[in-house]
Amino acid sequence: VGDCSGVVSIGNTSFAECLMLQSINLSTVCKTIDSAAFKNCKALTSIGVSIESSLITVIPNDCFAGCNALITVGSLQNILTIGYNAFNSCYVLGTTMNLSSCTSIGECAF
Question: Which of 22, 19, 15, 12 is nearest to 38 (CA)?
Fold first, then answer.
């Protein structure tokens, strides 16, 4: 389990290819997640702390692409933009997503 309880920003490819990461707890003060931050984290199944309670408004390009085991992301209620390929190849993603605030969804996002 990765605990990012005090983190305000997650940079490009920060956890990419982290094959043993199974879950991550995001801080409610986290403002940004950059491109491909969790790309190809094959064992990642859940993102803790609902994204709706955080300050994150963008799921960037390739953010969770290739996270084949990802099941739960939490509500995307405050998300305005979902980037290109953001959840591509997340075959078992089972979260019911509230995209009521979303104004832009990139190609191949899901």
Answer: 15
Backbone angles phi, psi at 51, to 5 degrees: -60, -25
Residue 43 phi/psi, 5-degree rounding, is: -95, -5
The sign of the dihedral angle between the CA atoms of 23, 106, 103, 81 is positive
Pairing of strands 81-82, 58-59: parallel
Burial of 20 (0-12, 13-18, 19+ CB in 10 A): exposed
- Please check the confidence at residue 50 and state whether its pLDDT lies above 60: no
**pLDDT beyond 80 at 93:** yes
Q: pLDDT at position 3, please?
A: 63
Within a 10 A sphere around the Cβ of 18, how many other Cβ atoms?
18
